[in-house]
């Protein structure tokens, strides 16, 4: 390793791949590492509508449908909306369709969901923290631009620098005021376990669950 670090030896293709794996680099960044070392990329990047992605599309759709009536959505590496189920309309109604193309923008823009989020400062800090960690890992300039845009949106609530639990808290909830009542959610994110394609590796499924019995009952009783 010291020879590689000082330039006295050139890493083999296998060594580059092993370093990328041990550093837990995303597949896109591993391709970049290979190119920098003088090797061809090994990870393909398919379009979602390509035939080879049919099984992936089917799995996503099955997960989204099974989660109804609770909201669930799928985003790509730039937080662009890929797909969503019918339950998401409870959160997105009356939001400009142009904003809905990007989930973070739709959540934090003053003409998006933000005015309806009861704990906006807390939820905003949570989302920006997730995006910041993604930027640290990938150094993606487009994500950095998105972060700067989102950070410039107004917020009239304090934004905690550290997520500290209050009495009885076990997670950060999303509390929104919709249909004349306050609804409370927590989310679970999922990724594909053994991706060998960049597009597959970068898909994230986020499923929202009711954080209290009243929210669960309201969603179950509300037609999609």
Question: How many beta-strand segments?
Answer: 5
Major sheet strand order: 2-1-5-4-3
Shape: globular
Q: How would you sum up the major sheet?
A: 5 strands, antiparallel
N-to-C terminal Cα separation, in Å?
57 Å
Mean pLDDT: 91
**What is the radius of gyration?**
20 Å
CATH architecture descriptor name of the largest domain: 2-Layer Sandwich
* Number of H- or I-type helical stretches: 10
- Which parts are unreliable, with pLDDT below 50 for 5 consecutive residues or more? none
SSE string: HHHHEEHHHHEEHEH
- Kindly provide the name of the CATH class of the largest domain: Alpha Beta
Reported by name, the CATH topology of the largest domain is Beta-Lactamase
Helical percent range? Answer: 40-55%
Total domain count: 2
Structural class: alpha+beta
How much strand content do the residues show? 5-15%
Q: Could you walk me through the main structural features you see in this protein, from its secondary elements to its overall organization?
A:
The chain is an alpha+beta fold. The protein is built from ten helices and five strands; from the N terminus they run ααααββααααββαβα. The chain has helices spanning 2-6, 13-22, 27-36, 54-67, 89-92, 103-108, 120-138, 141-151, 198-202, 213-221, and strands spanning 72-75, 81-84, 174-178, 181-190, 204-210. Strands 2-1-5-4-3 form a five-stranded antiparallel β-sheet. A hairpin with a 2-residue loop joins strand 3 (174-178) and strand 4 (181-190). The longest helix has 19 residues, at 120-138. The model has no long low-confidence stretch (mean pLDDT 91). Residues 56-220 form the MmyB-like transcription regulator ligand binding domain. It comes from Planotetraspora thailandica.
């Amino acid at each position: 390793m010291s020879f590689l670090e000082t330039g006295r030896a050139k890493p083999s293709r296998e060594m580059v791949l092993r370093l990328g794996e041990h550093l837990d680099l995303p597949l896109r960044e591993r391709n970049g590492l290979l190119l920098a070392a003088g090797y061809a990329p090994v990870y393909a990047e398919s379009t979602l509508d390509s035939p080879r992605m049919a099984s992936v599309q089917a799995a996503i759709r099955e997960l989204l449908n099974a989660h109804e009536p609770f909201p669930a959505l799928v985003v790509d590496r730039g937080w662009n909306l890929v797909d969503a189920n019918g339950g998401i309309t409870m959160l997105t109604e009356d939001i400009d369709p142009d904003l809905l193309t990007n989930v973070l923008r739709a959540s934090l823009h003053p003409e998006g969901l933000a005015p309806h989020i009861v704990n906006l400062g807390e939820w905003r800090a949570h989302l920006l923290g997730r995006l910041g960690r993604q930027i640290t890992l990938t150094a993606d300039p487009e994500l950095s631009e998105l972060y700067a845009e989102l950070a410039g949106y107004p917020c009239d609530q304090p934004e905690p620098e550290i997520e500290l639990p209050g009495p009885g808290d076990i997670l950060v909830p999303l509390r929104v005021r919709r249909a004349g009542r306050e609804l409370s959610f927590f989310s679970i994110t999922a990724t594909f376990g053994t991706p060998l394609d960049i597009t597959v590796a970068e898909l994230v499924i986020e499923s929202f669950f009711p954080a209290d019995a009243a929210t669960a009952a309201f969603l179950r009783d509300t037609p999609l």
